Amino acid sequence: MSLSKQLLLLISALFLMIFSVNFVLSVDNIRSYLEGESQVHAQDTATSLGLSLSPYLADEKDPVLETMMNAIFDRGYYKEIKLVGVEGEPLVTLRNDEVEESVPEWFIALVPMETASADSEISSGWSISGVVSVAINPGYAYYKLYEQVITSFYYSLGAFALSVTLLLLVLQITLSSLKRIGRMAETIAQGNYDVIERLPWTSEVRRVAQSMNIMSNKIAKVIDNLNKKLERVGQKLQLDELTGLGKKSGFNEDMDELLASNGHGFVFLIKLDALSSLVKELGRDEVDIFIRDFAEILKGSTQVGTAGELSAYRIFGSEFILLARNTGETQAKILMNSLSTRFSTLAKKYHKDDIAHIGGASYDPFSSIDTVQLAATEAYEQAVLIGANSYYLRKGDDRVKDMVEWKELVFDVIDNASYRVSYLDPVTNLQSGELIMKEVFSAVSDKQGETVSIATFVSIAEKFVKIVDLDKGVTQRVVEYMGAQEVSHFMAINLSNRTIKNSDFRVWLGRLLTENQALADNLVFSLSAYAVGKEVAAYQEFIRFVQGLNAKVMIKRFETQSLSASIVKELKPDFIRLARNIADGIAKDAAKQDFSGTMVEIADLLNIQVLAENVQSDEDLAFLKSSGIEGASR
């Protein structure tokens, strides 16, 4: 029951109690007053009538006696006037037993009134010659009492109605502030740290609102500080400490996203061949300066932008990679020539002729990370044979299947739903060991029965706008499986970028989940942090849509390079799964520990569950269990 109703009932009960006591006392006082007045009136009438009849009582049959008594009887509300002679015989009796019709019988029964009566002795000389008795008819008293009660009741009822109206108005004004505070608390729980600008006028509620504002501001500052800390730690995890370039894990994640999103361009493998000889000739600090100078050349090439979007990575030691997105062959050659010239300039600074070579290889949706790196390595070996600081660009290899074959395979598999769906990578609760989630994977075979790359298959499906049908089919199959197997854990389904923006898919999904409401709560749609970071608005709209259907959303491969924690606060997913490299070796890596701990703190404030992926060692698992991570897969 709401506070306003409780207060209204309490005050109404108090009003009713006070009114009832006051009303009963008032009625009793009025009745006593009317009874007293009737008694006085009866006595006055008996006395005055006795004096009036005294001269005529010498003749008990004198008609004047009755005439005078009638005159008095007709002028007042009397029940009976009786004249009794000296011997006790009645001489004149006048009686009226009529009841006041306007007064209900229940009122007369509920409020009984005594009939007022009085006697007066009539004297003739020194002897008593008779007695006159007067009894007042209570009907008039009842009428006056009833009229007073009704009037008091309606006035009290009007006063009660007015009081309740004023009370409701005051309560609405006062409680509206409490409602605002309640909504504010809910928004804080959801990760929105608003403040109440117009403070309520009630002093107690005003102090509560001020306290809530202070708390909201403090939590907002805590979240902001945690976000900044997470950004710093995340950057530290993703970047090489010496050069400031990306690490191998960052390159692998970027390549995965590019290949999954139909990306194309070039990968340039650069090996610093002179490093081993310089380590022998120079001191450690001078070697570090040399590596940083070399890294600055790579950074400079990423900032020029003449070869499309470039990212630089230090894979390990003397091996570096440049990743070029949306870059053509001509641009790639210009870039490699420019780098070769700068390498020669740097070589002269350190009295060397040859310090590095570049091997370039193209990639497209048909590629894989391993094949691209292998091609780039072979190109590097060719560059070494060409000469000092030289480069070699290798074009794409011949494909096992051409585009026509891929298109035919994609259409055939999706139209006939001949793909396989499996449920792998179980995520278990790190505290209880219970199963939290499984991820849905699809597999496809060609006409020869050989399994093809699902990443390439999905890329081609996106290219020919068949990916939405594939995602529909997989989702339908998962829902049917959950219903048949009575699955109680979460099932994570990966959706493509095109699917989440497709209005037809949303209509279809809304109808599917409405028909399977009992299963919707265990359905999780998995979204890549990289893809979300590219189109935040579109994904935010999709997340709100899915959560409105009681389903869940997970952002996977989370790291701050792809998606900042401040955006996570706006998106409010149900789960966040950390990038795979975060859990690898976390037990011995302070930076990773700091990152995961900060993410857990933020997630706790935002009511988001944090998961880890592909935990290999028991030592890492033990640390994750103690750090507050909800669950992990192995």
Q: Tell me the number of structural domains.
A: 3
N-to-C span: 48 Å
- Percent of residues in helices: 55-70%
Radius of gyration, CA atoms, in whole angstroms? 49 Å
Number of DSSP-assigned strands: 17
Question: Which fold name fills CATH's third level, the topology of the largest domain?
Answer: TIM Barrel
Tally of helical segments: 22
Strand content: 15-25%
The main sheet comes to: 8 strands, mixed, barrel
What sort of overall outline do the alpha carbons produce when their principal axes are compared? rod-shaped
CATH homologous superfamily classification of the largest domain: EAL domain
In short:
The protein has 634 residues and is of the alpha/beta class.
Provide a descriptive summary of the structure in words.
The relative contact order is 0.06. The chain folds into three domains: 3-161, PAS domain (Beta-Lactamase); 248-394, Alpha-Beta Plaits, CATH 3.30.70; 403-633, Alpha-Beta Barrel (TIM Barrel), CATH 3.20.20. The protein has an eight-stranded mixed β-barrel, surrounded by four helices. It has a five-stranded mixed β-sheet with strand order 6-7-5-8-9, sandwiched between helices. A four-stranded antiparallel β-sheet has the order 2-1-4-3. The protein is rod-shaped. It has helices spanning 3-53, 63-75, 105-110, 139-189, 203-238, 248-260, 275-281, 284-304, 329-349, 369-386, 403-415, 454-463, 467-485, 497-500, 503-515, 517-520, 529-534, 536-548, 565-571, 580-583, 590-606, 618-627, and strands spanning 78-85, 90-95, 117-124, 127-136, 265-272, 309-316, 319-325, 356-363, 391-394, 420-429, 435-443, 490-494, 523-528, 552-558, 575-578, 609-612, 631-633. α4 (139-189) packs parallel to α5 (203-238), α5 (203-238) packs antiparallel against α21 and α8 packs antiparallel against α9. By secondary structure, it is an alpha/beta fold. The chain contains 22 helices and 17 strands.
